[in-house]
Every structure is written in C-alpha cells, then in structure tokens.
Amino acid sequence: MTTLTAEKPTLTPNNARLNDGLLNAMAALHWLNDHGLRVRSISASPMHGPVIVLDEAPKPSVLEGALKARICTGLVAHVTRVATVLGCQVEWRCKQMPGAIAGTTVEVAA
Q1: Does residue 24 have a pLDDT over 60?
Q2: CA distances from 33 to 9, 60, 93, 100 (A)
C-alpha cells in the first residue's frame, strides 16, 4: 500500500514576500472591519507592502493619518491621508474646506 504525502511547496523569495503581504492585508482587513471601516480596494506587490484604500475617512479616535498628498482647487483642498495598520499602508481621501474661524479647516467626506 502506498501512502501519498502532500509536500508543501517552497515559495520563491518573491512569492514569499507577496504571500506575507497578503496575510498582513487579510489581518488588517479584519482589524478595519472590527472598527467599522469599509475597504474599497487592496493592492499587493512583492516589492512594496499592501496598500488598502478606505471608502471614507475614519474617526480620529480609530485611525489617525499623516498627510500624503494635498491638491487645492479653489477653496477646497483634496487631501489623501495615510496610516499603517499591521504592516499595511492604509489610505483615505477627504476634502478640506476653510472653517468659519480664520485659520481653521473642516474635513468633509470626499
């Protein structure tokens, strides 16, 4: 009687990095979901970590982001913010408009 054993194939270094990134992205997806955030897209590359794009800006108490890009059109600034969650880059877009008080801004959903 012959016993068949399934050997786990060894991943190439490139595929191993991609696999690790996908595992991190899955863990980050669950963390974001647990905090009530909707994910629009996830992209992964072996050379760069996973990038997760959110549907809307999170509450600052959940996730605080740094400024990545700012494009001004008239009085409105289109802002992309970025944060790191479980080894993944998380991005979201929002608009900033001048506030009622001079020198302040108000963020609204993009």
Answers
A1: yes
A2: 32, 16, 18, 34
